[in-house]
Each structure stands twice: as structure tokens, then as C-alpha cells.
């Protein structure tokens, strides 16, 4: 039942095109740095205008990055013509998010016909090392025939 | 055990001052529109630069708004000198987020010494009515003596 | 989109018949005490063989009761012939679970074609009053045509 | 900050003694089959009296097994005299739970002073292979000085 076989051979171009349409990813400076079937990494550089009251990255920015990483990891396995929507996600905040770069690594745990379950580790890269700052588990939904583009 | 009594009589000014320091809330155009013990409403007007690939508000924006609403609802009940951190939250996305305004209503479900559990309904206001577009439940942590400001 | 209209006029008998088939509900002594469209209450009396290490009800028992309450609240709105499966749930434990009776009140938040989002408050009844001991939010899935009975 | 060093050299005996006190684990036939710092495996054999309406294991049984595996993985790293309580958990149900044995593998993701975040994979062993049937992420709390035994 679980498969990491892309159902759409053009998954790479399709995921990248959809990511480009997420205006909010551009607003927070996120870039797509890794894409393979069932795997998407997104990263950004912390900025003052993304911070919470103590100067760390706002949990909502981490959630946005991890949610998009999960959503596109899921979309990479979906059939051509399907769109992806987040049904729900949970995120645990594990350490203050600061560093040179923040990377969210979305990975598919289970790819079903309607629902795809993904996890994402969010890490802060600093001084050459990595600290896991958050962990997400989310449920992504395959939507077909509702007039939504990819 | 549960109490909606503020432990800090100056809770109102303290919550507002902390909210002003959340640079990311300013970035997404969020305003604090209601504050009472255990209750905080935040709202924003949807903008293109906050959107996902289909033109709706990105789930990460909804999560950010609801997380701050929950966090400040929790902080309103915490003792003077304590800081609030999000330990974890879960959000269910219920309907596409579009409308004239988006309001996140954070409410304390249980206020404990260390952990405060909150929920938030996120609604889209359109044509005079409201649609619930997301629901969050989260756990906020009281942090004392770690050198974090409010 | 949201509706609390039962799609199956025979929902009452159907939900009760399915509940009777859940052997585990009988094992923990759960009874169905309220059923209306989108609403199911289940309750049980705490017993030593359901306890965790401190003598309170095990969180897994609370989760089981709340999950079935949510699942049957969802099933009460589903079309005839559909089966319900839990896709995921989250539960926050708010207070030690002890008392004369434990009641889980499952309520539909949003009823969609494929996914139904529910919440459940779990309360302990003691000395005539109630204490909320847990809160669940979960996603239930409508399954049709896979050969599953109700 | 993260450490998988047990703070209590007697962690092994302490975890096993606490597990023996969880009457509900005995009720569902769970056994502790692996214990190391930050790691606990629990397993059980499916029985009819643990089933839901389609004959599979009830999601609440999976949640109970995974919650105890997470809780004891967390307790294995806690200081002597501390008790563990589940603050919250989320579980995704990935496949019908049936097989010769069900194993929940609790692992600590982040061990903090007050909160420990854990995950658990729940697998069904059948015909020599394994299928992941559920995935949990949960937050466990270190409780000291409230008169709770281990």
C-alpha cells in the first residue's frame, strides 16, 4: 500500500511550479533545496521580521516551512492533475530557532489514495552543526476534480 | 485547579507590550482586537503575499495567528515575570481561508502551573457572516528564571 | 458545506449496532448514553484493571472512549453504507482521571464528504460536579466501497 | 541539551517496576520486550476483546500501547524520584491493525528538564514481515514533589 513511486513522471517540474506559486514562501524567503519522490527540503535564513518576542523565529514560520515541505513531499507522489491540501498538522517546538539557516525536511511516512501522512524535522544550522528545533507530523489530502490547480 | 483569574494585575499592558515585540505579527499585518483574562483575539486582512498556491491564505499564516492568540491568552493568566513559550500545537484546516478578515480567537482551556492548554477557532468573516476555517489546540509553557523577557 | 443533517434516516439504529460490535468498548465497560446527529456520549465507571501506575485511569482508556465517541458522532452524519475509520487524533490530558463516572462527549466540528473533524471533552463526574480531564480533536474518514461494514 | 544519558543509574529496575503497576497494560496483555535509555518496546497479541467494529485492534488499544511505550522511554531518562505523566499525544492510524503481534517502539526525540518529546512507531508483525500501522508523537512531563510514585 505504501509506495514512494511517483505516479506522475513529471513530478519534479510540477512540484517546483506549485512551490513558485506559494507567495507566502517567497515572503519568508524560503527556497526549495531538495526534491525526490516523497522528500522535500525547504530552507530559509532567519530575519528580524520573522521573529517572536524573544528574537527567535516565530513558531508560525517554522510551521509554515514544515507544512509546505510536507505538502510538497506528498504532492511528489500524487497523480498528475491532483492538488494537495493540508488537512491537519501538529508541531512540537523543541529548541529556540536561531542560526545561519533553518531547514525543514518533509518526508512521506505513508502514501494512501486519499490521505498522505508526512513528518518533518526542522533543524537550525549553526557553526557547522545542526540542532533539531521542531518536529511536525501532518496529514495531506489528495484533491481531484475540484478545479484546483496543482 | 483551573482558573481564569489573572495572577498579574498588569496583565493587559504586559500582553500588549509582548505582542508589539512579535515582529512577525507586524509582518503579516496582525492586530490584537480583544484581550481579557484567558482570551485573546488576533485578526488580519488576507493579502496576496500571504497566500498558498491556490490563492488562499497559507496554513502557516493561520497557524501563526492562532499560535500567537493561544500564547497570549495563556500569558494573560501567568504571574508577573514569567515568559510564555509554545510547546506544541495541532491545527485542523476546515475550509479555504479567504474573506474580508481572518480572526483567531485564543481561549484557555486549562491553566496549570507549568502548562496551559488553549484552543483557537480561526474564522473568516465574509459578507457579514463567519466561516470557521481552522481549529487549533496547543500547549503553552510558563518559563521562569531563564532570562527571557515577557 | 458543514451540516449536522444526518444523511441516513436510520442513523440511530446503525450507530448503536456498530457500537455493539466494538468488543473493546465492552471490555472497558463503556455504554452509549447519548446519541443525536453529530453527537455521541459514551461513559464508563473507573475500575482498577483500567488504571495506570498511580491508580488513575490510563490515558489510553480515555483515548479509546473519546475516539469511539468522536467516530460515532461522525458516523451519525454519514450516508448509509459508509464505514468510519479514525485517521488521526490528538488528546490533551488535563487532570487525573478519577471519579464515579467518566463521560466522553464527541461532537462534530466539521462534516465533509471524506473527512469529518470532531472534538471530545472527557469529564470526570464526582460529588455531583464535573472536572474536564481530557480534550480530544480528531479526524474521522468516510470509507465507502471497501467491503467494510458500518 | 538533548541527552540520552539516564540520570538514574537504577533506571532499568525503576521502569520495569512502574510498568508492572499499570494494571491496564496487564488487561490488554502488553509485555515490555526492550528497555534502554530513551527506548522502550511494548508488545501484545491481538485478541477479539480488544477489537473495534471491523475486527481490527481498536485505535484506543494502539494509543494505550504507544502512550506507555513513550512514557517509559521518557521515564528511563528522568532523575530518581521523578514521576512521568502524559501531557498530550497525537496518533496517526496508517493501516488496519492485525497480525501475530503488535509492537510499539517508544523513542525519546528530545529530553528536557520538564518536558520530554517522544515518538512511537506501532508495527504489526505478520508472516515474518512488519507493517507500520500507527505513528505517535507525544509530550511527557517530569513531575517531582507531588507525592506521585514512579
Helix/strand/pairing category of chain A? alpha+beta
Regions of chain A with pLDDT < 50 over 5+ consecutive residues? none
What is the C-alpha radius of gyration of chain A, as a whole number of Å?
15 Å
User: Oligomeric form of this entry?
Assistant: homotetramer
Largest sheet entry of chain A:
6 strands, antiparallel
Topology, number of strands of chain A: 6
Cα(first) to Cα(last) distance of chain A is 23 Å
Q: What is the spatial order of strands in the main beta sheet of chain A?
A: 1-2-4-5-6-3
Q: Determine the number of helices of chain A (DSSP H or I, runs of at least 4 residues).
A: 3
Basic shape of chain A: elongated
Helical content of chain A (DSSP H or I, runs of 4+):
10-25%
Give the averaged pLDDT of chain A, no decimals: 95
Order of helices and strands of chain A: HHEEHEEEE
Topology at a glance:
4 copies of one chain form a homotetramer.
Chain A: H1 11-21, H2 23-27, E1 31-36, E2 39-44, H3 59-75, E3 83-93, E4 101-111, E5 115-126, E6 129-143
Antiparallel strand pairs in A: 1-2, 2-4, 3-6, 4-5, 5-6
What does this structure look like?
The structure is a homotetramer of 150-residue chains. By secondary structure, chain A is α+β, with helices and mostly antiparallel strands. In chain A, 22% of the residues lie in helices and 41% in strands. Chain A is built from three helices and six strands. Chain A has helices spanning 11-21, 23-27, 59-75; strands spanning 31-36, 39-44, 83-93, 101-111, 115-126, 129-143. The first copy, chain A, is elongated and about 45 Å long. The interface between A and B is large, with 38 and 38 residues. β3 (83-93) of chain C pairs antiparallel with β3 (83-93) of chain D.
Amino acid at each position: 500500500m505504501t509506495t514512494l513511486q511517483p505516479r506522475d513522471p513529471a513530478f519534479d517540474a510540477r512540484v517546483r511550479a506549485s512551490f513558485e506559486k506559494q507567495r507566502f514562501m517567497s515572503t519568508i524567503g524560503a527556497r526549495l533545496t531538495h526534491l525526490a519522490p516523497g522528500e522535500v527540503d525547504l530552507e530559509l535564513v532567519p530575519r528580524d521580521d520573522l521573529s517572536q518576542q524573544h528574537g527567535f523565529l516565530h513558531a508560525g514560520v517554522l510551521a509554515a516551512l514544515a507544512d509546505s515541505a510536507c505538502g510538497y513531499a506528498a504532492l511528489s507522489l500524487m497523480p498528475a492533475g491532483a492538488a494537495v491540501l493540508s488537512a491537519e498538522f501538529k508541531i512540537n517546538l523543541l529548541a529556540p530557532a536561531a542560526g545561519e539557516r533553518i531547514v525543514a525536511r518533509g518526508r512521506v511516512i505513508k502514501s494512501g489514495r486519499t490521505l498522505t501522512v508526512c513528518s518533518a524535522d526542522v533543524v537550525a544550522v549553526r557553526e557547522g552543526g545542526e540542532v533539531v528545533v521542531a518536529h511536525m507530523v501532518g496529514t495531506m489530502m489528495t484533491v481531484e476534480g475540484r478545479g484546483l490547480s496543482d
